Amino acid sequence: MLTGVSETALMTLNVRATEARRRDRLIDDPMAIQLADSIDFDFSKFGLSRRQDMAVRALAFDRETRRFLGDHPRATVVALAEGLQTSFYRIDAADVGHEFHWLTVDLPPVIELRRRLLPASDRVRMLAQSALDYSWMDQVDTEHGVFVTAEGLLMYLQPEEALGLIGECAARFPGGRMLFELPPAWFARLISRGLLRPSFSYRVPPMPFHMTPSQVANLVNEIPGIRAVHDIALPPGRGKVLNALLWGAQRLPWFDSVRPVFTLLEFG
User: How far apart are the first and last CA of the chain?
Assistant: First the structure.
């Protein structure tokens, strides 16, 4: 079974599947339900599963991926450290057609699970390797556009690793885009010190990499090949109070040091 950072894939899968089972669900994800039901694992290890955050995060990534595919219907989506996400199946069922291709890059135990439990498609390829092994870039078809996602990845890397990966993507995929999210510093520190846990029996791996919105915005000046940096607003969740807080945190600069960042990079 999965260990270390890869084990977080089981936690996020369970949260998404739990949300998808609700009548008032935020996310339509039948493949997540099927996948969670097919894995013999005690998900109670991760504590509370009735939470919206993973579904809202997935919807944000889906929305930006669909926007890119709307303009580049034959593009390649590269999902770095995809874990047990079911993004391809959600997007393939959406309104972007069926010409795009998908490349999953993840560690061997994750790829083994995905190959064994998820339906095969001739438009999906999987590479069993670390995202930091840049040889995966040689396998990307760049002819029709490239959209790189790093959902739940960069925060677990060392700063030089994360920035190096961004820089290499910018150099290799001009005209492409990259989407990632990062926690605020206070959250990352509490997680790294074991002071914030989803349950008494599970500790989330340390998160050594975090940036403020202004630091992320400055990447356009620090990393060659980045043409533009966009601060992405989260899609609405469930509940007026939650949505009001999300709206305010995204738009009022006083919250910049305490809110997470969702960032879309355009490569020149």
Answer: 40
Per-residue pLDDT tens for 51-72? 999 999 999 999 999 999 999 9
Q: Using alpha carbons only, what angle is made at residue 226 by residues 222 and 228, rounded to the nearest 5 degrees? A: 105
Q: How far apart are CA 27 and CA 256, in angstroms?
A: 27
For 58, the domain range is: 4-267
**d(Cα 39, Cα 46) in Å, to the nearest integer?**
15
Pairing of strands 226-231, 261-267: antiparallel
CA distance 93 to 227: 31
Give how many domains the chain has, as a whole number.
1
How many CB atoms neighbour CB 98 within 10 A?
Answer: 9
Q: Which of 267, 3, 15, 9 is nearest to 137 (CA)?
A: 267
- pLDDT at residue 1 in the model: 73
pLDDT tens column, 136-168? 999 999 999 999 999 999 999 999 999 999 999
Residue 164 CB partners (closer than 8 Å, separation 6+): 132
In this prediction the pTM is 0.96
**How far is C-alpha 235 from the chain's CA centre?**
14
254 secondary structure, DSSP code: G
Residues 211, 217: Cα–Cα separation, whole Å: 10
**Confidence band (pLDDT; 50, 70, 90) for 253?**
confident
Query: Looking at residue 52, which CATH number applies to its domain?
Result: 3.40.50.150
- Rg of the chain (C-alpha set): 18
